[in-house]
């Protein structure tokens, strides 16, 4: 059965895609509601239509656009979901109103009439709601109610004379029960409404996605192993301190939660190069030792992919993923290359990557260090690689025991908060007001969840490497990393994985939504952890992002493979508890890690959902670029694997300043003061590292004048809020 799936620029459409594909046995045709092809499509080209959820309201042409053509016909069976359900009602003359209580990410109990879509589905099943608007009863004569939530809000309807059905809830959500049965019922109804439909066989097959043998590009990976305990901090300080550019992906930075491997390297190898990207200009700037910089007019993904392909090599049997390749970051403003707006210009590169041809990989479990050297497959290349391996083995053998210096004390809590607040880019009152503005957008149906952020900006009077050595001690995190790229240095203690793509094609994301401080006693700590896990607001935040990540991964993963092995688990770190989920899937054949990044960037935990419309709201609320913060950092390996973190709990050094971003997800249950305090909590550890790095005194920091003037509320934001408010009242 050939289904047309109309995407109303939502962030859950590809969850519906996978559900429809698994039921029908073939992929649906996906067209956005403003795609010109939608108007040219003949009703005979497809067998039925599913109209997706989306932001906005059905009475506004932008929000349903070409979907309305399929609501005004009686040939094709139609299923409308959420906004599609409201559109079905609106086109038939029903009213659209603000729901008695908006529900975003909340499970609900559904009762129904037991017919059509609900045939064989038990009464009182659980479904997830994402809506601020609804279709109120009584309905016009052409419509019939079919399902209701426990609060009496209409959850389902059917057209009396057309084969059209709608559901207000989301059958594709991870927590909705019986979603597959509902779509199977729609398939059965479609077959009955159009007897000429030919039921096709299943065309969705799971393909073994083993990596193809690397083409011979004239390169070879040389390796050696050092046996013994190696301190990555000492190695970085003694081996890379003089390098112009260097990196340290710090698997030891999280203590007991640390990763197994750390990766260290620099730009001194013969194949090393550094590239940076300006998204507005569409220009990649490439720098290699001893050569003038080159500017290329192409997108960063094309350049990175070619760099990996040009250096592809046979893969030895190693216990880790990174076998030389790119190390660096994608900044938040790169969204402009992926369908987002170019609302702000970052003062730092929108992407920056170093090709690492010589890497020290420290295995913290086995107490060994693997040395990797990628070289041209020539006699001189072999000799040069052997020389580097021998010299590095000798260096590691010569290391003596190393002890980190003691940390300076952190100011008293009241001083720490005062220092932080003094250097915030937005006043406390403005941040709280922006939370309220977000909630206005949520009530209007423009978004389900908005990730609002701000930053502190201070003088960078300590070296970025010194800062990072302190940061990894005061805030150990599993995705800690340090990049020293010259024009921008990044010191990160991120707890959140954005994406991991294995060489075997398995894709994994680990979104975090929900943060609570540690308790002063074991009893208090346990109570705080349990409260976080059970808090309805926090669980709704996490669920929304899990469904969003399922959607994003669903763009590039094989049908039926996207699943959630861990939903809302609590993880404890040195300073906070966090609510974490895991989403996993199998990459489609012919795609690679950069395709996954393009499908998923920016990370949904830093935007909210629906992503496209929510990023527009963020652009209007936040008066400046986020830069590196909210982006992704890690490696892209020559063997096809990748591992990237979300850039949070991170200090960015550039032009003599250090900038630290923080924020949180705003939902309708958010308290403005609570959101402000959560933002300060997330700043606390990076700010403690700033103080403890030894370059500052409280009095000096408090007496200094912030260089950046406080940024007040945006006129653009006021205008949008006023317009949306008028539309809601008019509806």
List keywords for this structure.
731 residues; 32 strands; 19 helices; aminodeoxychorismate synthase; Rossmann fold; eleven-stranded antiparallel β-sheet; Anthranilate synthase; aminotransferase
In short:
It is an enzyme of class 2 (transferase). The protein has 731 residues and is α+β, with helices and mostly antiparallel strands. The chain contains 19 helices and 32 strands.
Describe the structure.
By secondary structure, this protein is an alpha+beta fold. The chain has three domains: 3-193, Class I glutamine amidotransferase (GATase) domain (Rossmann fold, 3-Layer(aba) Sandwich); 219-398, Anthranilate synthase; 413-730, Anthranilate synthase (4-Layer Sandwich). It contains 19 helices and 32 strands. The strands form three sheets. Strands 13, 14, 15, 16, 17, 23, 24, 25, 26, 27, 29 and 30 form a twelve-stranded antiparallel β-sheet that branches. A hairpin with a 4-residue loop joins strand 13 (273-278) and strand 14 (283-287). Helix 10 packs across helix 17. The longest helix has 21 residues, at 672-692. It is globular and about 85 Å long. The two termini are 37 Å apart. Residues 4-186 form the Glutamine amidotransferase domain. Residues 230-370 form the Anthranilate synthase component I N-terminal domain. Its EC number is 2.6.1.85. It holds the Pfam family GATase. GO terms for molecular function: 4-amino-4-deoxychorismate synthase activity.
């Amino acid at each position: 059965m050939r289904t047309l799936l109309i995407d109303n620029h939502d962030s859950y459409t590809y969850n519906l895609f996978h559900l429809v594909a698994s039921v029908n046995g073939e992929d649906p045709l996906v067209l956005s509601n403003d795609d010109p092809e939608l108007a040219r499509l003949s009703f005979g080209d497809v067998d039925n239509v599913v109209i997706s959820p989306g932001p906005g309201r059905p009475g506004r042409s932008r929000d349903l656009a070409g979907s309305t053509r399929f609501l005004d016909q009686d040939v094709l069976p139609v299923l409308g979901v959420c906004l599609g359900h409201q559109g079905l009602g609106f086109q038939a003359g029903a009213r659209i109103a603000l729901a008695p209580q908006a529900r975003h990410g909340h499970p609900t109990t559904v009762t129904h009439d037991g017919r059509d879509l609900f045939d064989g589905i038990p009464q009182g099943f659980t479904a997830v709601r994402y809506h601020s608007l609804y279709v109120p009863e009584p309905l016009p004569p052409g419509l019939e109610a079919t399902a209701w939530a426990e609060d009496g809000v209409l959850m389902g309807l059917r057209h009396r004379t057309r084969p059209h059905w709608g559901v207000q809830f989301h059958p594709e959500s991870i927590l909705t029960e019986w979603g597959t049965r509902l779509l199977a019922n729609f398939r059965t109804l479609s077959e009955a409404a159009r007897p000429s439909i030919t039921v096709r066989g299943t065309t969705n097959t799971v393909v073994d996605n083993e990596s193809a043998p690397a083409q011979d590009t004239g390169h070879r990976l040389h390796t050696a192993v050092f046996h013994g305990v190696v301190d990555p901090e000492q190695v970085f300080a003694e081996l890379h301190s003089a390098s112009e550019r260097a990196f340290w992906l710090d698997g030891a930075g999280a203590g007991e939660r640390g990763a197994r491997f750390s990766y260290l390297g620099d730009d001194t190898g013969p194949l090393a190069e550094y590239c940076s990207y300006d998204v507005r200009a569409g220009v990649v700037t490439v720098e290699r030792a001893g050569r003038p910089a080159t500017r290329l007019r192409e997108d960063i993904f094309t350049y990175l992919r070619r760099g990996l392909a040009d250096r592809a090599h046979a893969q030895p049997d190693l216990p880790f993923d990174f076998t030389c390749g790119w190390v660096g970051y994608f900044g938040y403003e790169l969204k402009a290359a992926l369908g987002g707006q170019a609302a702000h210009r970052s003062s730092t590169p929108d992407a920056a990557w170093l090709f690492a041809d010589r890497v020290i990989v420290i295995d913290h479990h086995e107490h060994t260090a693997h040395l990797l050297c990628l070289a041209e497959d020539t006699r001189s290349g072999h000799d040069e690689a052997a020389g580097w391996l021998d010299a590095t083995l000798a260096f590691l053998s010569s290391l003596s025991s190393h002890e980190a210096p003691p940390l300076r004390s952190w100011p008293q809590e009241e001083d720490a908060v005062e220092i932080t607040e003094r250097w915030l880019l937005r006043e406390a009152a403005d941040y709280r007001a922006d939370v309220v503005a977000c909630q206005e957008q949520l009530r209007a149906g423009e978004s389900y969840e908005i990730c609002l952020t701000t930053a502190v900006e201070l003088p960078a009077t300590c070296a970025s490497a010194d800062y990072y050595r302190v940061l990894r001690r005061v805030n150990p995190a599993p995705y800690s990393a340090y990049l020293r790229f010259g024009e921008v240095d990044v010191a990160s203690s991120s707890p959140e994985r954005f994406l991991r793509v294995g060489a075997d094609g398995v894709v994994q994301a680990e979104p975090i939504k929900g943060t609570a401080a540690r308790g002063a006693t074991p009893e208090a700590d346990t109570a705080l952890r349990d409260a976080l896990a059970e808090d309805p607001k926090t669980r709704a935040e996490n669920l929304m992002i899990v469904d969003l990540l399922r959607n994003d991964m669903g763009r590039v993963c094989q049908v039926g493979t996207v699943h959630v092995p861990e939903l809302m688990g609590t993880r404890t770190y040195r300073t906070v508890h966090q609510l974490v989920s895991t989403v996993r899937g199998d990459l489609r054949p012919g795609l690679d890690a950069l395709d996954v990044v393009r499908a998923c960037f920016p990370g949904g935990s830093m935007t909210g959902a629906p992503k496209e419309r929510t990023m527009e709201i963020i652009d209007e609320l936040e008066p400046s670029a986020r830069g590196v913060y909210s982006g992704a950092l890690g490696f892209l390996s020559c063997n096809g694997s990748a591992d990237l973190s979300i850039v949070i709990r991170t200090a960015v050094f550039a032009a003599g300043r250090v900038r630290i971003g923080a924020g949180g997800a705003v939902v309708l249950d958010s308290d403005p003061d609570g959101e402000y305090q959560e933002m300060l909590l997330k700043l606390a550890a990076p700010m403690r590292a700033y103080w403890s790095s030894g370059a500052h005194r409280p009095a000096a920091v408090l007496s200094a004048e912030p260089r950046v003037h406080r940024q007040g509320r945006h006129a653009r934001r006021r205008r949008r809020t006023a317009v949306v408010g008028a539309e809601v009242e008019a509806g």
